Amino acid sequence: MQLWELFLIALGLSADAFAVAICKGLSVRKLTFDKGALTGVYFGGFQALMPLIGFWLGSRFQNLITSIDHWIAFTLLVIIGSNMLKESRSKTECLNPSFSVAEMLPLAVATSIDALAIGITFAFLEVNIWLAIALIGVTTFVLSFAGIYLGNSFGLKYKSKSECFGGIVLILMGIKILLEHLGFLS
Question: Helix H segments across 28-128?
Fold first, then answer.
């Protein structure tokens, strides 16, 4: 997998965290650099950790499902992307303005579950996992940091657009992987 493809996947995965960061920014009256950085660390850290766990799990079972790995990658990416498209049309709920571990940890885990599935997909593809998780983590950190400030300043204007964009990117990457394995693309 090429660097630009990994970057597109990182953007797609970051969309959920970006959307939640926007909502988190809405809930905060006085936003400080520390709160923005903490949001980025939580979301970026979990977005980097989950693909590593998924890669490890996928590597353990790779020999059993090598003949259908492209279908698994395609299915996971389309399901995740479709779910993001569906979420982009749902109403947003207000988030708690707290930045405690009890508040941030569930949000970080919830926004990174998709990354676990992507990690499983990476195990079946030729992916430098260390580069992939670094790119995913840094991209998510930057977008989450920016998202909390955008939410605090502009509101929900970008939430649904970011989720829609992320969903489309993941679906297109799934289709590309399937077409490559079926011999339609080189």
Answer: 33-65, 69-88, 101-124
| pTM confidence score | 0.79
For residue 138, the surrounding DSSP H or E stretch is helix 129-154
- Is it the case that residue 50 has pLDDT exceeding 90? yes
Res 136: pLDDT: 97
Q: What distance in Å separates the CA atoms of residue 87 and residue 163, rounded to the nearest whole number?
A: 7
CA distances for 126 relative to 2, 137, 139, angstroms: 9, 19, 21
Residues in the chain: 186
Closest CA to 116 of 42, 52, 44, 40: 52
Half-sphere exposure of 109 (CA within 13 A, CB side): 6
DSSP state of 184: S
Tokens describing residue 168: 């489309």
**Integer distance in angstroms from the first to the last C-alpha of the chain?**
12
pLDDT for 158-174, tens place per residue?
677 777 887 788 788 88
Q: Six-digit token pair at 123?
A: 């195990």
What phi and psi values does residue 126 have, to the nearest 5 degrees? -85, 90
